[in-house]
Predict the 3D structure of the following.
Amino acid sequence: MIPWMLLFAHARRNRLRTLLTMGSVAVALFLYCSLRTVVTAIDYTVSQANDSRLIVQSAVSLFMHLPIALKQKIEAVPGVAATTHWTWFGGVYVNHDMRNFFARFAVDVPGMRRAYGDLKKSGKPDISVPPDQWEAFEKEKGSCIVGRSLVEQFKDADGKSLFAPGCVIPLQGNIFPGEYRFTVRGVYEAINPAFDERTLFFHWDYLDEVCDRKGEVSLFVLYLDDPKSAPEVAQAVDEMFRSSPTRTRTLTESAFNLQFAGMWGGIVIFLSFIGGAVLFAASMVTLNTLLLNARERITEVGVLKTLGFPDAAIGAGSLVEAVSLCVAGGAAGTGAAMALFNHLGGGRVLEFLVPGFRVLPGTAGEAMAIAAALGVVAGLFPAGMAARIPLVRALRRVG
Amino acid sequence: MAIPVRYHVRSLFVRRTATGLTVVAIGFTVFILVLVLSLAAGFEESLSETGREDNAIFLRDAAMSEGESVIGREIASLVEGLPGIARDPSGALLSCRDLYAGITLDREGMPPGKGGTMVSVRGTSPSELAVRPIVRISEGRMFRPGTEEVVVGRGLVEKVRGCRLGGAIDFQIREMPVVGILESEGGAYDSEIWGDVEVMMQVFRRESYSSVVVRLADPAGLTALEDRIRGDPRFPVKVLSERAYFRQQTGMLGTVLRVMAYFLAAIMAVGAVFGSMNTLLASLAGRTREIGTLLTLGYRPAHIRAGFLIEALLLGLMGGAFGLLLSIPVHGAAAGTTNWATFTEATFRFTITPGVMFQAVFFAAFIGVLGGLLPAFRAAALPPTEALRA
């Protein structure tokens, strides 16, 4: 038997205090969701990888180029259905400002369309581009396609996008020195949420024609007939070039993406640590409030005891109050995080760091569980105090 | 006459549970701010200490970092022919031509091929030590020119496979023996591997350098160099002081860390303000009669208001002190992550600078006072007669 009707009477009596406590729990869980999402978004790029693709890179370094001549040899390996290649262009757009930085790749356009953009052939496409835009892009050597986020980000003073189809994008080359101008012929949207929507793709053939570094690519992408054959194919490719001057390292797409996830290194542990500290601080605030409440209610506890409520019921009542306070605060914080990152475009702003910055349902669930646990931990002490206090002492304060 | 501060100190002490819990909550908030700011400070310091004001670095005109820069042999020779470059006592030019590249190596203790990291490799010549005297060989010796010997930065030792005296670095085509450990007083070179530039050119199959670094005969000579190469088509390069260059390299990661620090601190501050407001409001509720007495004794409402703000400030400062105390063990701890300017491993130390401490104390005081505003005004508004009756 718990004095139910008293539970919410307490919460209502000191509204400001209740709100402030819920507010601090909400803040803590908002931060928890934000920090945790950095980690899940990084993992996401790994877990969303396509199993039927392998990446061949130089064994020495990711940033060392491979000769295009390897293409034919790789295609001859049994189990390889098709190949395409990517080349990191680097370059500078307008100036070195961080906001003007986005990825630029030179690609084999028909191969890219087959491997990443074609609904029918690749099974699980990563990007979607209207067919007429694909064709316009394929036909024109000096053209490019850009991600939707770029179209939204770069606008002139009148609000007109500088990356819309028909616009010309000037880039200054550094790895491939020279001045480049690409005409936008299409805009892609990411279907795979882990695919970066801030990238410019242009023709590798064009790059190879105009620059002095001929026949170089950053990496090859292999399509497999059967994803199960990945380990054998990878081994066969690396074995083929083991004694050549261009040794390769062939990785599954998830292992490849893991290299980038690994670059965050200590930062991920650091974020988790911060998350812990944030929750600890919030639990101190909550515990403090509940203790303040308990102290003010000593008289009430005495009255309840006189009326015959058992100690356990009084303690449980306090506990239920604490848990509901925290869960309500947690719901507010988690809800705010989900609204901000998933619906109001807050995740978009962070895309230059990690693509696919979204609060996952799992994270929200964790946050709510933590909120409840916080309520239990912070509620146990005052609940115990309320239940244990001797009747005579509690009533002595009446008056 | 204002209320004696002792009264406020005692008020906080009487409610020590609530005071303690609030101090802990504010303390953790300050701790987080200090943690992230000291990470940013350590990173920025490690880079800015690396560069010299009287060294000039030449990069390809559109390159932001050495990793993106390509300087052919002819251009390098032209650059070294420019006026204003210092010479050592024997008359040799104080200049070094570097090749900068990244190599994928396994982290120590991780299975081969998994969880690799990008490590910076600098192909150079022993003249580097004259141009960059911050670097010294602390163990073993410098590599011999023309050989496959390498020296590794102190920050990589024990962290990356093969990076120890007597170890060998796996450059795939060949294994290169480690003959020395280099140290640069915590600077960026501590995370690099150095070897002979011609050997590295073969390894990375490149025919060009990344940068040319020269000692200026006169530190003010940089402008003259800039003017000399500007608009000259034979020099598709840019020149900047080495210090300015390294400061630029903090760009992305430094900014991200700072933004993260202020974002976390701002949001956590909201929570901490709520906490201290709660504490002071409860203290106000329990002290209504005391306040009535003070008013009757002749203290003005302004005194009461000021008194509550002082208590709030004390609460904040105690939280700040606690937060700084918590962060002491972190000072000097090594941290490592990827510097996104070069995509290579960077090692540096958490550094609590006076600036960080000042920001922490200011932030703590701010949280306290902000939490105290509402209780202070409420307290000052109490009518004396009713307060006494409470």
In short: Chain B has two domains: 5-48+251-389, 55-218.
